[in-house]
Design goal:
elongated, seven-stranded parallel β-sheet, about 30% helix
């Protein structure tokens, strides 16, 4: 198996290409890995350069997912490709149905949750306490004039205490949960909204958080609103004229998820009118950048040395789990499916269409060859499903080909 890593140089210029390469050495230790190629381009490759980088690879880490590369024309040049790991929290819309038909698993390496949550709170603190403003003012004072010494404890802007204020967290995934929990520890009244909250996130969410099923409740009641959801058709422009109209006067809105979640024109109008006191985002756009009340910073939410290291560790861990146990985690196009460690069993993995009697057909083929099923897990996502089966014996020659003959089966893999 061949793995290609496309590790774009990050903005921290003190980290060398050699250090970036070292992060991925763990891939060479994985069982069944014949070759690891690590590319560290100065700029992210264009489509033709990506073709050259990927070549005949079975797995790719660091591919930015979007319609330009997740399409039939692109994938037709890489027939060996089975696994793609994005090195980030987000992706652009692409043809998920087509990737499922190809049997390619695409995972989202959610590596910078802690850093992004800290980043959100650092900027919220700055909005409330104007740290940069006061720092600049003190540095411009002429301290050789004795009268100016009285200036050291004067505030030029009103500061705000977060205790007992109300904050709404839209999106309770890996980042949103951290932000929501941190807010409770500061004594804030926290509302959380996420109609698709995962079991893992629910377990980690503080019990003191008001979990609302209506996002309008957040718009109407919260002094601060922070957005942590992916860019989907259902979420694009969600912070628009109607949502802003429901918000309290002087609300502060934070967006560290995707720029398209906020209607820029509506946000500019709300800032100019004073409806929104501050809009804080790390997605600079020409419409927002120069508007009074907007705090616009470079897209640096996850750009720390620690988060980049965590990215490599998580990606290696996830692909190792996929190769050794068949488990799919943080999947973009397939259901997450985890049956734990394989142990001494033989594990059969089947990607297939989500139609009735698939489990029955698969089981019938195994029974015909006198194989006993020790454990089974099946998860579906839309029109597609993933089935994991542990059997007590070796898989006879020909069984894989027999399973592939089932009309709705896309790909079969055996781990033993």
């Amino acid at each position: 198996m061949k793995i290609v890593v496309i590790q774009e140089e990050i903005i921290q210029t003190d980290i060398t290409p050699k250090e970036l390469t070292e992060r991925w050495k763990g891939l060479e230790q994985l069982p069944g890995i014949d070759e690891v190629v690590i590319e560290v381009p100065a700029h992210y490759p264009n489509i033709e350069q990506l073709h050259t980088c990927i070549g005949d690879a079975d797995a790719v880490f660091g591919l930015w997912i979007g319609p330009d590369n997740m399409n039939e024309a692109f994938l037709s040049q890489h027939p060996n490709l089975k696994y793609v790991a994005t090195l980030g929290h987000g992706w652009e819309k692409f043809d998920t149905e087509m990737t499922r038909k190809h049997g390619i698993s695409i995972s989202n390496t959610i590596y910078g949750s802690q850093t992004i949550a800290e980043y959100a709170f650092a900027l919220l603190m700055d909005v409330c306490h104007h740290i940069g403003t006061h720092d600049t003012r003190i540095k411009t004072i002429d301290w050789s004039v004795p009268e100016n010494h009285n200036e050291f404890c004067k505030s030029v802007t009103r500061q705000i205490e977060l205790y007992d204020k109300t904050i709404g967290v839209i999106g309770l995934g890996a980042i949103g949960v951290l932000v929501a929990n941190a807010a409770t520890h500061l004594g804030m009244d926290v509302y959380g909204y996420d109609p698709y909250v995962s079991v893992d996130s629910a377990w980690r969410l503080s019990r003191s958080i008001h979990h609302t099923t209506n996002v309008d409740e957040i718009y109407e009641n919260c002094d601060y609103i922070t957005v942590h959801v992916p860019a989907l058709d259902s979420t694009k422009g969600m912070i628009g004229k109607d949502a802003l109209g429901l918000m309290k006067e002087g609300v502060i809105v934070l967006n560290f998820a995707r720029d398209v979640l906020v209607d820029s024109e509506a946000m500019v109008d709300a800032l100019v009118a004073g409806k929104v006191k501050h809009y804080v985002t790390d997605f600079p756009t020409p419409e927002i950048a120069g508007v009074k009340g907007a705090i616009v910073i470079p897209h640096l939410g996850a750009s720390t040395e620690e988060s980049e290291d965590n990215c490599a560790k998580m990606a290696v861990k996830e692909v190792m789990d996929y190769l050794e146990n068949g488990n799919i985690k943080h999947s973009v196009n397939y259901p997450d499916c985890d049956m734990g460690l394989r142990g001494d069993k033989t594990r059969i993995l089947v990607l297939h269409h989500n139609v009735p009697n698939m489990i029955g057909q698969i089981s019938a083929f195994l029974a015909k060859d006198n194989m006993n099923i020790a454990d089974l897990t099946n998860k579906s996502k839309g029109k597609y499903a993933y089935t994991m089966i542990d059997v007590d014996s070796e898989v006879p020659d020909g069984v894989v080909e027999e399973l592939k003959q089932i009309g709705e089966v896309l790909r079969v893999r055996v781990i033993c």
